[in-house]
Amino acid sequence: TAESAVPEQMLGFTAVAASSGDAVVVPAGYVATAFLPWGEPINAQAPAWKPDASNTAADQEQQVGDNHDGIHYFGFNAAGNGPGDRSDEGLLVFNHEYINPEYFYAPDTDAQDWRLPFTLEKARKGQAGHGVTVAHIRRKADGSWEHVKNSPYNRRIHGNTPIAIQGPAAGHPLMKTAADPTGTEVLGTLNNCGNGWTPWGTYLTCEENFNGYFGWNGEHTQTVLEKRYGITQDGFGYLWHTVDSRFDVNANPNEPHRFGWIVEIDPFSPTSKPVKRTALGRFKHENAALSIAPNGKVVVYMGCDERNEYIYKFVSSGTFDAANPYSAANRRLLEEGTLYVARFDAGATPADKMGTGVWIPLLPSTVGVDGRALRNNPHFAASSDAEVRALILIKARQAADAVGATMMDRPEWVAVNPKNPGNVYVTLTNNSRRGGTTSNSPDGTTTAGSARPPVDEANPRANNVWGHIIRWTEAGNDPTATTFNWDIFVLAGQPSVVGERAPSSNINANNLFNSPDGLAFDSFGRLWIQTDGSFSNSGDYAGMGNNQMLAADPTTKEIRRFLVGPSGCEVTGVTWTPDRKTMFVNIQHPGELGSHPNRPKNPDGSTFSDNQIARNPTAFSQWPNAGQRPRSATVVVRRLDGGVIGG
Ligand code: FEO
Ligand code: CA
Ligand code: CA
Ligand code: CA
């Protein structure tokens, strides 16, 4: 055929222009279709989505959640009863990071705020809008995809689903609550941001800004640990703590310790209980990128997304049995291992934006920058090394502070190059608190929130408004190595800007973007970059348009825009069928107004409040359905000629 006569290109598509419209834009020859939006019934029995947002909490538990994020396609095997490599039928598993209350709730009356009255029913509906969806999907004869609504694999995991707590921190006193006196089971997973997937057929969902759901009623003095993880009186303003005591830290001081983990889910076992894997540490997890080392160890790379936080990796104790990928032993590989944190050094040549690095193990015996071993640091004081280890994992950020890890410009997604398991990329999305003189201190007195570190070679711009992507190669290309070499793949920005703020030379007028966030390689070795930044299209952001997705050649560093999202959205999460002929991309929070310059105005010139948006949900974005409130959704991207995506 004509298709097979043309070899696959690294960037074999025509770039699309920046745009600020209310639609998904893809290159000529491609088609993009919204699929499985917020509120879609999860199976044939589930209630229909109500366009006025009047569905109940019980309804939402049986419907696709809100704010789609990380995603993975798991093909079925030939028998259709387990994981395999089929590109025509599989399980699409995806995260629901948060909710947009201004679109998620129906105001009770035209005069009322979504907050009034705030009830346990509303909190439960919000909790049900979070978590993970497992959807059985099938390709039709015309190449489009359908949801198999009568399949037993369809499943929602949400903010009240029972989840096991496993690993070194399970059962620690800080993990115990009145409802769970053993510290081994928690209700729910929240703020499910990026994801990972394993070669043994499981999905990893990553809990990011869990702090925002907690608050306190009455008097409370914030502890050092609460401060380090950002637990505040009112959190995101979701009000759950006012009606559900689980989220009131005065009533349940340990409940926040049970969030901020990576959760492993077996999508092929619909009744299986998800598991929080505490060996991978507790922080604001973005995603989880797996690499199998030559010696069989499983390495998981992870970023903690907040200004001036760290990059971590987990190295398993056990080894992967490649001959029996779905073996019971492989499925236990995330139970035990060593957590490391990264330090990026300048290397032999100053100011060349390249350098060397060290992975510092977070163990009781590791000596911090203050000269004390972690077992002698008061944050981790305990009677046994086993308990010191549990504390190091629960307070991973403080352990990283103590050992002098490098504060980064907001680590978002990590991606491993499939052509070299020791070659790893991470997005550093932006950082408004870079360019000062204060760093996180090992005693917890100065921490994220007040720190403003100086520029360094790996984070070279003060007030980094556009973000960058850094990459490293582990010594000997071995993911378990404890040293690496790094360089900067791209500094985003404006080509007209020179000097300290200048972008790298692979940025030009045709590929402007800001705030790289989602990041993934396809199996061909193409690097896909997704953005979550300013869509004002003016000032520093002129010419960038809406949030978007670009493809890059990791060798030449060429970057080309592939997709632009609708108004107000972020583009986050991507996966492919094994044949690379279908790509699934998530469009998150279309219509989220934030500081958008086109935010609807009242006749007196004042901007719309959240309450006014709730009453006028089609005032701005109406994606994906004209005349309806905006809904996060997956987008199915195909080529009209049936070819591979991007090639
Ligand atoms: Fe959920 Fe850091 O993005
Ligand atoms: Ca250097
Ligand atoms: Ca993100
Ligand atoms: Ca982001």
UniProtKB/TrEMBL annotation:
Q: Which organism is it from?
A: Tepidimonas charontis
Give TM segment ranges. Answer: none
Coiled-coil segments: none
**According to the UniProt entry, which residue ranges have a biased composition of type Polar residues?**
428-449
**Stored Pfam families:** PhoX
Name of the protein: Phosphatase
Question: InterPro entries, alphabetically?
Answer: PhoX
**According to the UniProt record, where is the region Disordered?**
428-460, 589-612
